[in-house]
Amino acid sequence: MFTLIKRIIKSGWQNFSRNLGLSLATIFIIVLTISLISALFILREISQFLTSALREKADISLYFKGESKEEEILEFKDEILKLPEVKNVEYISQEAALEKFIQRHKDNPLLMESLTEVGNPFLASLSIKAGEAIDYEKLVNFLENSPFQNLIEKIDYHQRKPIIERIFSMTSYINKIGIAASIILAILAILVSFNTIRLAIFSQREEIKIQRLVGASNWFIRGPFLIQGAISGFLATLITILIFFPLCYFFSPKIELLFTDLHLFNFLIQNLTVLLLIQFFAGIFLGIFSSLIAIRRYLDI
Amino acid sequence: MISFNNVTKIYPSNPPIVALDDISFEVKEKEFVSIVGRSGAGKTTLLKLLLAEEKPTRGRVFFDDIDVHKIKKSRLCQIRRRIGTVFQDYKLLPSKTIFENIAYVLEVTGATDQEIKQKVPEVLEIVGLAERINNFPIELSQGECQRAAIARALIHRPDIILADEPTGNLDPYHTSDIIRLLLKIHQLGTTIILATHNREIVNLIKKRVITLEEGRVIRDDEKGRFIL
Q: Which of B195, B188, B186, B189 is nearest to B167 (CA)?
């Protein structure tokens, strides 16, 4: 058994090294496929970052009456945070709201003058972010019927409702399109790889026939082709890693200029194990599985 | 050992080509049979049917009472290991050296590395290819390829050797060497089926001759001569 395996591996390596042109073409195609799959993995992350950023814009504001005490508002905040639909609650005091306004409009002398005359017109508020569009509806129902409703001056939701629903609908649509496009592209890439390997084996069909005629068993013939496929897959994965990671390192700062909080290279490092596993699995699986399927028809002699 | 029962082989083309037409004969163990005929008589087709490289249109082909066209592929490859074939077009593996081509048959039959290292150079010495051991088939002349094909057919001491025009590209010296070799192997107990259109060889061997003409057996003589 050991001798048999040794011979199969040796023959597989010989096939690979003596048909170098064909082997390099196969490696090239597998590199493209793995690169595409890796790029889709990263694009999914960018897409999720963008959709999250967009969803972050959606919130409802709860304004409290001027006489409401801060302790009561903070107690209310803690109650709201217990709700499963709520992602985040931010308390903005009257003073903080005034400060924000001054910072935004400090270059407008008319507004600044009005403020000095009027005083602080702002109310304390809670800015509440939920997970899904439908959660806001539930949240508003809760707020309108909560024991703390006597503190509430205004719930700023019904005007924002169409926008919130549009944001969530759009991001959900983007996600679904992204997943569908990724699956289609990945399938196409795999089919191209499979076809290339099939053509490579087609060019060796006469050799396969000769091996059958001198009495070689199916696995004795198949084995070297699987080894050849595995070697191609493994080398393609290594080449992809050598190209992909430096490219990401190079482009990561440039992407950060567009999207401040998106640290692409850090994301890669944090997901290094998963990405490497995906690449190795894709490369070697493509190489071996494609060879296995492609050689079947030529063993029927 | 070998039996052809009412075998017909028709290649579908326009018009259809009748390569073999209702032929029947038997070859006993340890026999030496020459299959003779013009080019296109059906000699190669006959050998292909025995090797199960092609399927008969009608009739059955038996090897040791086993219909070679009705068995599993796994069983078929075991039968093929008992056959040494010299193909008319050599059928050497282009990406392997001459040593590897011949060693391949031994690997298939499960020989050890030591046996292979010992036997392959011996056989190459016999067919006069000792110096071509590390060359690829593309680097050899046609005659050298033919001798390599002969070496591959002999190396594993098969029960039967099918030789399809084994001397077609050889000079007279190598031709007589190869025929002497085949006769010697036959004396050691191997069944030989030799397909040829070389009159001199057939007449020299003085063994059983089956003559094919247009796909039919027209003559089957125990101590035959090449007569058309």
A: B195
In terms of phi and psi (left: phi > 0; alpha: psi -120 to 50; beta: otherwise), the region of B110 is left
Nearest to B95 among A207, A214, A300 (CB): A207
**Do B137 and B148 form a contact (C-beta atoms < 8 A)?**
yes
- Determine if residue A296 is left, alpha or beta; phi over 0 gives left, psi from -120 to 50 gives alpha, anything else beta: alpha
User: Which one of A7, A215, A218 has the shortest CB-CB distance to B81?
Assistant: A215
Q: Can you tell me whether residue A198 is helix, strand or coil?
A: helix
Whole-structure pTM value: 0.76
Q: Chain A: nearest CA to B80, how far in angstroms? A: 5
Q: Report pLDDT for B227.
A: 66
Residue keyed to tokens 């490497």:
A276
CB-based burial label for B148 (10 Å; 0-12, 13-18, 19+): buried
% of chain A with per-residue pLDDT over 70:
98
Does ipTM top 0.85? yes
**By the 8 A CB rule, do B101 and B154 touch?**
no
Structure tokens of A151?
A: 């503190």
A64, A93 Cβ separation under 8 angstroms:
no
Whole-angstrom distance, CA of residue A140 vs CA of residue A138: 6
**Residues B2/B26, Cβ–Cβ less than 8 Å:** yes
Residues of chain B under the 50 pLDDT cut: none
List pLDDT tens digits, range B138-160.
999 988 999 999 999 999 999 99
Taking only the tens place, the pLDDT of each residue in A36-95 is 888 888 888 888 877 777 777 777 888 888 888 888 888 888 888 888 888 888 888 888
Phi, psi for residue A228 in degrees, rounded to 5: -60, -45
Q: Do B85 and A213 touch (CB under 8 A)?
A: yes
Residue A93 makes CB contacts below 8 A (sequence gap 6+) with A70, A124
